[in-house]
Amino acid sequence: MTNATMHPRLVLAELEEHPLRQRLNNEFHARPPIPLLGAMLVSHLIFKHSATTAQAEREHLGKLCQGHVCNAIDSSDAHMMLETGAFRMRWELHTEFSSYTFYKELAVGETLDPDATAFDAVHPEWLGGIPGKLMVATHVELRSTDEISPQSVLANLTPNGRTMVASRVADETAWIFTDFKIDNGFSRFLVLNAGMTQRQTGRTVQRLCEIETYRMMALLGLPVAKEVGRWLYTGEKQLAELMDRIGQARTADDERGVLSSLSALAAEVEHSVARTTFRFGASAAYHGLVMQRIEELRETRISGLPTFYEFMQRRLLPAMNTCEAISRRQEELSARVARNSQLLRTRVDIELERQNQELLAQMNSRAKLQLRLQETVEGLSVVVLTYYGSQLVQYLAKGTKDWHHLNTDLITAISIPVIAGLVAWGTRRMRRKLAAEEGVAH
User: Fold this and answer.
1) Which strands, in side-by-side order, build the sheet including 71-75?
2) Handedness of CA 125, 126, 127, 129 (dihedral sign)
3) CA–CA separation, 92 vs 56, rounded Å?
4) DSSP code per residue over 294-352
5) pLDDT per residue over 352-403, tens digit each?
6) Mean pLDDT, rounded, of the chain
7) 91 by DSSP, 3-state: which?
8) Which of 38, 239, 292, 436 is the most exposed place for a label (fewest CB within 10 A)?
């Protein structure tokens, strides 16, 4: 059998597979919406956690099955679906938070108690032991338009009551009502199904839970922005004062003092940027997810009531704009401090160069003075060497006078100009050689 006629699976078996191929493909298909049918109460809890609580959460999930007969429908390191006789629970692990979504079927026409939840069957001690801090708690009540008519809900809205957000979604096959307020610890959504399929219903409920989750997570950046905004006002004022001090600086000590203050301010700015970059970036990402989920709802306006998109544009967008503005101000302050520090360093460097030039000029002046002194000493050296040379000649002449009867004083006198000439000629020649070598070196 040739390779052309082999089964594709046999051909792929001979190829080396990337170790992440299956994992990435499974992640692509992870967290699908749960098909929902009939009346349903969905309780969605979000716990903000640290990066070290993942193992603790998985161990805590194991305790949930100790008191119930659990059937793990879908399980991985980052998500799990548990089915019991009393409820269905879905757990998802995210970067900053974990979600616990409980599903409880309702009887047609069943009236819900205000304190009822989808996790009433879960032991309170287990809920209290969930790692992290509660960030979001919301109820999504799913009913059909046969049980609760949209007109009855609209009729019960009081003109002076809470601002109700409502719209028709999924090509007008469902109605959604909420006010984004927290009552008894939960925000609440009412979904009236007028013709959605099971998967459409599951996607709609999932999107509502995600809108509430990402809305609250996006707002985490607002307190940080307000805190940083107050500090930025002080930092910008301090920078302006330092610029005034630069203009008033008259000595190098003044400039070095300003440069030291600018360096300290730059360190504070960079610390603030490093501390808030992740939070502002995460808020922007969460806001984008909120608007994306709202767009996926495919809203249609209900007369007299704001849509989800309009409500977020009025209430959430200003907060996100504040975070963006503060982040931009931080970056601009950092750039201004760096630019002014560079200008001041340039000014200090120029002053140092001027001082170095003065120092070099003084050194050149001293070198010229030393050269003159050296030339003077060289003249004295010729005299000294001539004197000692003549003395040597005199001693030699005295040693030979008994042989040749020579006049030692005459010989000494004649040798003096000869020795002086030789010494002067040798010194001048040595100086010229050193000067030539110095010229070649430069």
Assistant:
1) 71-75, 79-83, 88-93, 97-105, 40-48, 133-144, 187-193, 174-178, 165-169, 300-301
2) positive
3) 14
4) HHHH--EEPTTS--HHHHHHHHHHHHHHHHHHHHHHHHHHHHHHHHHHHHHHHHHHHHH
5) 788 888 888 888 888 888 877 776 776 677 777 787 777 887 777 777 666 6
6) 86
7) strand
8) 436
Cα separation, 239 vs 230, in Å, equals 15
Burial 45-70, CB ≥16 within 10 A → b, else e: bbbbbeeebeeebeeebeebeeebeb
Q: Rounded to 5 degrees, what are φ and ψ at 7?
A: -70, 140
Look at residue 1 in the predicted model and tell me its pLDDT: 45
Bridge partners for 27 per DSSP: none
How much of the chain, in percent, has pLDDT values that exceed 90? 45
Here the tokens at position 103 are 């599903």
- Tell whether the torsion through CA atoms of 268, 269, 270 and 274 is positive or negative: positive
Stated length of the chain: 442
pTM of the entire predicted model = 0.76
Tokens of 405: 């009867």
pLDDT tens readout for residues 262-276: 889 999 999 999 999
Tokens 């790692």, residue?
A: 131
Strand ranges (E), 145-201: 165-169, 174-178, 187-193
Burial state string for 331-359 with b = 16 or more CB within 10 A and e = fewer than 16: eebbebbeebbeebeebbeeeeeeeeeee
